[in-house]
Amino acid sequence: MPRVSILIVCHRHVDLLVRCLESLQRNVSGAVAAERIVLFNGTPEADRGAARQALADARVIVSEVNLGFGAGNNRAAQAASGEYLVMLNDDAEVQPGWLDALVETAEEHRDAGAVGSRIL
Fold first, then answer.
1. pLDDT of amino acid 19
2. Tally of structural domains, the chain
3. Are strands 4-10 and 34-41 parallel, antiparallel or unpaired?
4. Are the C-beta atoms of 21 and 36 separated by less than 8 Å?
5. Sign (positive/negative) of CA torsion 100, 4, 89, 106?
6. CB 10 within 8 A of CB 43
7. Per-residue pLDDT of the chain (120 residues; tens, 9 = 90+)
8. pTM
């Protein structure tokens, strides 16, 4: 079972999604077991194909209609099996150590409902 489920909702910006997934590939260490769940949120099928190679390590969910960001994350969360959920925007590019720091902070503050990372 993964420790963390990384949820990414993508509407139309498949090029940004690919960059996001590539940054995850480079910057998620094996120290924290993580699954990647991508919800295509009303994304046309032709656009989804452009991300096929970057999605090799991700679980993909398709909603033919745009559910919106909140409902899209809720739908992706239903498929998650991690102890922690990370809601990552499809235009985000993560840095080395970011996930380790998030999990460490969550562990240190068990009473917190959410933790966040620095956005640059």
1. 96
2. 1
3. parallel
4. yes
5. negative
6. yes
7. 899 999 999 998 999 999 999 999 999 988 899 999 999 999 999 899 888 888 989 999 999 999 999 999 999 999 999 999 999 999 999 999 999 999 999 999 999 999 998 877
8. 0.94
Distance separating alpha carbons of residues 103 and 117, to the nearest angstrom: 10
Report yes or no on 68 lying in a domain. Answer: yes
Residue 40 to residue 7: CA distance in whole angstroms: 11
Angle at 114 between CA 90 and CA 111, to 5 degrees: 160
What is the token pair recorded at 68?
Answer: 């919106």
Closest CA to 55 of 119, 95, 8: 8
Residue-range definition of the domain harbouring residue 70: 4-108
Strands (E), 1-120: 4-10, 34-41, 58-63, 84-89
In a domain, residue 119? The reply is: no
Domain CATH number, residue 67: 3.90.550.10
Q: Per the domain annotation, does 116 fall within a domain?
A: no
pLDDT value for 120:
74
114: in domain: no
